[in-house]
From TrEMBL:
Its EC number is 3.2.2.23, 4.2.99.18. This is DNA-(Apurinic or apyrimidinic site) lyase Formamidopyrimidine-DNA glycosylase. SUPFAM superfamilies: Glucocorticoid receptor-like (DNA-binding domain), N-terminal domain of MutM-like DNA repair proteins, S13-like H2TH domain. It catalyses: Hydrolysis of DNA containing ring-opened 7-methylguanine residues, releasing 2,6-diamino-4-hydroxy-5-(N-methyl)formamidopyrimidine. GO terms for molecular function: 8-oxo-7,8-dihydroguanine DNA N-glycosylase activity; class I DNA-(apurinic or apyrimidinic site) endonuclease activity; damaged DNA binding; zinc ion binding. It comes from the Bacteria. SMART domains: Fapy_DNA_glyco, H2TH. Its cofactor is Zn(2+). Keywords: DNA damage, DNA repair, DNA-binding, Glycosidase, Hydrolase, Lyase, Metal-binding, Multifunctional enzyme, Zinc, Zinc-finger. The keyword Lyase applies. Residues 2-76 form the Formamidopyrimidine-DNA glycosylase catalytic domain. Belongs to the FPG family.
Length: 302
């Protein structure tokens, strides 16, 4: 799942590549992906892209005051294209969810009343795709990002929250640390992968209760959030969209590394599996050498 560093890097990529261009046409290929109807998707046609930003894990493209907001979900991604097919895609069961055509810089939108028709020539732009059969990628066309329910519910951004606020949020949370870090209403931007990395860096069990942290543990956790996310962001920004996923994988220490040695202590990275997700951790670094039971309803290590 794209998380804060990847979504921020995608926003930076679009600020460099798309801002200043006219959004000529947006073609919906997966009807279930669009979550709004007013303004319609067609309202974006002919408008200049004036900004690109992020809200938690939501990507926000500002199109002259109308916002194209995307949540890439677990398996979604943005692919930059320089030779998009001219014909609209046929709706179907493939990975394509939305195709956005931009002017190629050679067309003057004022010559056609503020719109650019790429129906005959194709051009540059990007595809939003989602792999797998479980579809969660969501597209919103709104006048304000706050109209998106998921954005309206977001807690403070993980890279903007200060230490005192972070400590107060953790103290008010009765659940486990893994769930607290990935709860977007508590702190926005952290997902499954970076929560594993943060907890490893902080030397804390994913099952430790958030409201039972000592002062020293709170400091370690807060510092791990900042260093893990800023380090990942530094590696991601400036990458091409096509290389960001590989860059993310190359920087992970425990997430998706089950059975491999921990790069800190050499112990074997372990996994706890749930119904539709899993977490990875190092017993020596995080749980006093004790493996966590790999079943949902186990008696959890505190």
């Amino acid at each position: 799942m794209p998380e804060l560093p990847e979504v921020e890097a995608l926003a930076a990529f679009l600020r460099e590549r798309a801002v200043g261009h006219v959004l000529a046409r947006a073609d919906l290929a997966a009807v279930q992906a669009i979550k709004t109807f007013d303004p319609p998707l067609s309202a974006l046609g002919g408008l200049e892209i004036t900004g690109a930003g992020r809200h938690g894990k939501f990507l926000d493209l500002d199109v002259s005051g109308v916002h194209l907001v995307v949540h890439l979900a677990r398996a979604g991604w943005l692919h930059w294209r320089t030779n998009l097919p001219a014909a609209p895609p046929k709706p179907g069961k493939g990975p394509l969810a939305l195709r956005v055509h931009l002017d190629d810089g050679a067309t003057d939108p004022s010559a056609s009343g503020g719109s650019t028709d790429l129906s005959a020539s194709g051009g540059v732009g990007f595809d939003l795709t989602e792999q797998g059969t479980r579809k969660g990628l969501a597209v919103y066309v709104v006048r304000s990002p706050a109209e998106v329910p998921g954005i309206a519910r977001l807690g403070p951004d993980a890279l903007a929250v200060d230490r005192e606020t972070f400590a107060r949020l953790m103290a008010g949370r009765s659940g486990q640390l893994k769930g607290a870090l990935t709860d977007q209403t508590l702190v926005a931007g952290i997902g499954n992968a970076y929560s594993d990395e943060i907890l490893h860096a902080a030397r804390l069990s994913p099952f430790k209760m958030a409201d039972k942290l000592t002062d020293d543990e709170l400091v370690r956790l807060f510092d791990a959030v900042r260093t893990t996310l800023t380090g990942a962001l530094e590696r991601q920004v400036g990458q091409q969209a096509a290389t960001m996923k590989g860059e993310k994988r190359s920087g992970l220490r425990v997430h998706a590394r089950t059975g491999l040695p921990c790069p800190v202590c050499g112990d074997t990275v372990r996994e706890v599996s749930f119904a539709d997700t899993s977490l990875q951790y190092c017993p020596t670094c995080q749980t006093g050498g004790k493996p966590l039971a790999d079943r949902r309803m186990s008696k959890l290590l505190r």
